[in-house]
Specification:
Helices cover 46% and strands 15% of the residues. The chain is an alpha+beta fold and 397 residues long.
């Protein structure tokens, strides 16, 4: 593992940092700016920011230049993630499209799909949702029941999806449906991945309210909605293989950006601890709390060096395999650890966005609430530990 960046990488960092300094407004770097925005206004501001980055050549860092990307290396992508987190830049509004759909289309899409999907996605002209989960199937993708019946040159869709990120802002959805019957009882057969227009009669998105009060995901109902047969990704009946390819693109990402974000959160928590009272003295002087803060910091540093290890592996062209599961376990539990310490620091003030006129906790509290979901989505901790148990330790099923 080499902890140094090359001269070329450092040149890229300087170029990106200079662009951020010139183009990212100071007020957008402040948590209070976003705390005062409604979800629709926040979404549109982030969408505009994403488009501005793409126009300046700071999007699709590892994508081939023929698709509008920069043709960069895994190290450049890690630097990009780190600098965005360091600058407190807005998070992307198109995460599932950028991380999963686009590379899948590049790999197996038709020429028309590549032309129609990739560039509009990169410039955030089209926002994509992922429709995999169903109420009766949960994370068991092979248990889906939504059907797509062929009718002439298109499919007729009926069914429901749930926990759909960006359901209320999505323009299109890549979703799984049964286009045939399971072959010989094989549940993975007879499934196709469809690219469906969300702005049509027969598609209804309803919000699911989170404990933060936001509705970043929702449920989607399909009632005689349509999808042209040309909008099947990977071919009819190949949905399982297409989904596995799509999900494989989650692998290879290091957690450097997460480390940077969580370390900034830890610094903020220490700052809050210095201003909160605990038995007549600053909370940061409480010896038990100091141990909790130190334990969280140790986990953070372990995450940092694991991230460097992952980056070294991907830079050498290695498929991470089970190490992707280890990374997910590490960063999500570290996030929970920092959030848990924050809750102990503020105590009952956790329920009060502004416990003192000079102390606003709304953004930190929202982030701490959000951390509760990270050990569930993207493969729960139980699923990730099963992968490690079976594939690393060789334990029986």
């Amino acid at each position: 593992m080499d902890l140094r960046f090359s001269a070329q990488d450092e040149d890229f960092r300087r170029e990106l940092r200079a662009w951020l300094d010139a183009n990212l407004p100071a007020e957008m770097r402040e948590p209070a700016f976003w705390a005062g925005k409604g979800s629709d206004e926040s979404f549109e501001l982030r969408r505009e920011w994403e488009a501005r980055k793409a126009a300046a050549g700071f999007a699709g860092i590892q994508w081939p230049t023929e698709y509008g990307g920069r043709g960069g290396t895994p190290t450049m992508k890690a630097i990009y993630d780190e600098e965005m987190a360091r600058a407190a830049a807005p998070s992307t509004v198109n995460p599932l499209g950028l991380a999963f759909l686009a590379p899948t289309v590049m790999a197996i899409g038709t020429d028309a799909q590549k032309r129609d999907i990739i560039r509009p996605l990169l410039h955030c002209e089209t926002i994509w949702c992922q429709g995999f989960s169903e109420p009766g199937a949960g994370s068991d993708l092979a248990a889906i029941s939504m059907r797509a019946e062929p009718q002439g040159e298109e499919y007729l869709l009926n069914g429901q999806k749930i926990w759909t990120t960006n359901a209320l802002h999505g323009d299109k959805i890549f979703t799984m449906a049964r286009t045939g019957t399971p072959d010989g009882g094989k549940r993975h057969a007879g499934i196709s991945m469809l690219l469906v227009d969300m702005h049509q009669l027969g598609v209804e998105a309803r919000p699911l309210k989170q404990m933060t009060g936001a509705s970043e995901f929702g449920e989607v109902f399909f009632t005689d909605a349509t999808c042209p047969k040309t909008d099947v990704l990977g071919g009819e009946g190949n949905g399982w293989a297409t989904a596995m390819l799509l999900l494989s693109f989650e692998r290879g990402s290091s957690a450097i950006a997460q480390y940077t974000e969580f370390r900034r959160m830890w610094d903020e928590v220490v700052g809050v601890a210095a201003r909160m009272d605990r038995d007549g003295r600053p909370a940061v002087e409480d010896p038990v709390l100091r141990q909790e803060l130190a334990a969280a910091l140790i986990e953070l540093e372990c995450l940092k060096y694991h991230s460097w290890h992952v980056l070294t592996q991907t830079s050498n062209g290695r498929d991470l395999g089970f190490e992707a599961s280890m990374t997910k376990i590490m960063w999500s539990e570290t996030f929970r650890r920092v959030s848990d310490v924050y809750e102990k620091v503020v105590g009952t003030a956790f329920a009060v966005p502004k416990p003192r006129p000079d102390l606003s906790l709304e953004e930190l509290t929202t982030t701490a609430m959000w951390s509760r979901s990270c050990t569930i989505w993207g493969g729960s901790q139980q699923v990730q530990r099963t992968v490690v148990a079976e594939r690393v330790l060789g334990l029986p099923r």
